[in-house]
Amino acid sequence: MLTFPNAKLNLGLYVTARRPDGFHTLETVFVPLPWTDALELLPAAPGQPTSLGLSGRPIPGAPDTNLCVRAYALLQADFPQLPPAQLHLHKVVPIGAGLGGGSADAAFALKAANELFGLQLSTEALESYARRLGADCAFFIQNKPVLAREKGDVFEKISLDLAGTACAVVYPGLHISTVEAYARIVPQAPAHPLRAALGAPIETWRDTVANDFETALTPTYPVLAAIKQQLYAAGAAYASLSGSGSAVYGLWPGQFEAPALSWPAEYLVWRGQL
Ligand SMILES: C[C@@](CO)(OP(=O)(O)O)[C@H](O)COP(=O)(O)OP(=O)(O)OC[C@H]1O[C@@H](n2ccc(N)nc2=O)[C@H](O)[C@@H]1O
Ligand SMILES: Nc1ncnc2c1ncn2[C@@H]1O[C@H](COP(=O)(O)OP(=O)(O)O)[C@@H](O)[C@H]1O
Prior knowledge:
Blueprint: E1 2-3, E2 6-18, E3 24-36, E4 38-43, E5 51-56, H1 67-78, E6 85-91, H2 101-116, H3 123-133, H4 139-142, E7 146-149, E8 154-157, E9 165-170, H5 178-183, H6 194-199, H7 202-208, H8 212-217, H9 223-233, E10 238-241, E11 248-253, E12 268-273
Parallel strand pairs: 5-6
Antiparallel strand pairs: 1-4, 2-3, 3-7, 4-6, 7-8, 9-11, 9-12, 10-11
Adenosine-5'-diphosphate binds next to helix 1 and helix 2.
């Protein structure tokens, strides 16, 4: 079975408290970004163990630490009838970019195994396996815009009309560790609660929708502010860091595509419609 795990963007991100377990509570909106890896899941050939083939962008770490292999192993622990699997991941979405690529691979591996081997797991059951793999991961099970709270894994419906919104994603190639990014934040309540702020026209978001990681990381990585400024100079109605970075996106509502931007291809990694 061939699947296409997509990236995500965060529209606003507030780190509201530190939890006793060291994690943080969040208020953020996740939206799918239609930019994908490719992940194939097949039963392994008879007598062969579970394996992972890789192509595309290099992923650090041994294959058994890869999130899609860990996702499959999690199911195997509860469903001993699952055979060894042959996985192949073609990595397109940059790692450590705040685009959730690894989390998407894990969630799509769970969904593919469920379908291919007829496990009949409900959406809720798949989400609870996903939560065990990473805070971001559960979002990719339903993979539609949601307001997320708690660790970023408890969801509320939100209606957002982003149809016909052009988007550009600029990735300066900095791999910012999520742990390091959280360590720089002093949690606080959002100045403008996200549901109300995102309900207003996109043009107003610049003054009301923020990402706490952007504020915390920009002094160390001034390139993030420079990219954002250039996106606004190119007419974006809204621009922001996604997640804990380092990808920065711009939005152009009502436009077929983002205007031509002057970054080289290795920086301007994606342009399209949300
Ligand atoms: C920051 C966010 C925002 O959407 O996204 P990314 O920038 O990674 O895409 C997420 O919270 C990233 O979620 P995810 O990448 O799944 O994190 P996990 O693997 O579960 O946790 C990695 C580490 O981040 C910290 N962490 C994560 C989630 C959370 N709510 N509080 C935390 O403090 C913890 O130190 C944890 O050990
Ligand atoms: N399939 C995978 N794709 C990307 N990263 C992976 C994968 N499996 C494990 N990882 C690890 O997960 C971390 C990055 O996860 P990712 O979700 O891409 O981050 P971010 O959301 O910050 O962009 C890295 O430490 C990387 O080595």
